[in-house]
Amino acid sequence: MLKLSGFTDEISPNLDEQIAVSQQVGVTHFELRGVAGKNVLDFDDALRNEIKTKLAANGMGVVSIGSPIGKVKVTEPWPEHFERFKVAVDTAEFFAAPFIRVFSYYPPSDGDNILAHRDEVMRRFQAKLDYIKDRNVVLIHENEKHIFGEKGPQCLELMKKFESPKLRTAFDFANFIQAADHPEKNWPMLKPYTVHIHIKDALLKDGKVVPAGHGDGHIGEIVADAYKSGYRGFLSLEPHLAAGGQFSGFSGPKLFTVAADALKAVCKQYNVPVAGA
User: What is the pLDDT of residues 62-100, one digit of tens each?
Assistant: First the structure.
């Protein structure tokens, strides 16, 4: 049976509401990105402790730190960004989260080719992997438009460059579509590296984000193949149904519930057992 997680800051900035709506729709683990209007890397000790305590009291956990690491220009100063990465690792360990979501850098300016900066992208990933080699955490790379790994071949290149169990894939359907790429073509090549799946669908014609199964993501077929192939991880709701920005998205309680219901309907249609359905 697959499990449900979610970017619960899409529900509300309020922690109690995040927990309540998550429980209503069957989400058991946070993809922790924001609470009280603060990014996960900016939580103070009091907020971290509050989140950890309330999640434990409700039988919930954190599957991933939804960090913005790598979502900066590749020419921005590395030492400062690396310090932020260290915060992400510490935060993952504090919450016993197995994953840290990361990205693979924007070009220096709009219109530049990020592929020209491949060596620097790889150097930065090597430094991060060296840092966590003895830490109990895995980096999961999310494909995102305009970054190095916006399309399938570059995501595969990143995985093959390191062939490290410490660097795996978080497969995002809508992000591929918004980069004018095709999830169904990328899935076979990235399946061996995929340990986490983000549920966000979109339309190829204009990139509009829609509930699971209502777009061109082929979510049902891909999730069914993942399950048949032995995937038993999380389906992580990142709906972006009300708003989507560079560093966050929002749905609200009602649309987050719509997103969860749509995913459960897709899983039922394709005979994929999912918790909370």
Answer: 999 999 999 999 999 999 999 999 999 999 999 999 999
What stretches of the chain show up as alpha helix (H) in DSSP?
A: 15-25, 45-57, 78-94, 118-131, 152-162, 173-178, 183-190, 219-228, 252-269
Ramachandran sector of residue 140 (left: φ over 0; alpha: ψ -120 to 50; beta: rest): beta
Task: For residue 138, list its beta bridge partners.
Answer: 99
DSSP state, residue 179: T
Within 13 A of 140's CA, how many CA atoms are on the CB side? 27
* Residue 275 located in a structural domain: no
With tokens 């966590």, the residue in question is: 132
CATH number of the domain encompassing residue 215: 3.20.20.150
Specify the DSSP class assigned to residue 120: H
CA 9 to chain centre: 13
> What's the predicted TM-score (pTM) here?
0.96
| 8-29 tens-digit pLDDT | 999 999 999 999 999 999 999 9
Residue 135 domain boundaries: 3-269
Q: What is the DSSP letter of 199?
A: E
Q: What angle, rounded to 10 degrees, do the helices at 183-190 and 152-162 form?
A: 10
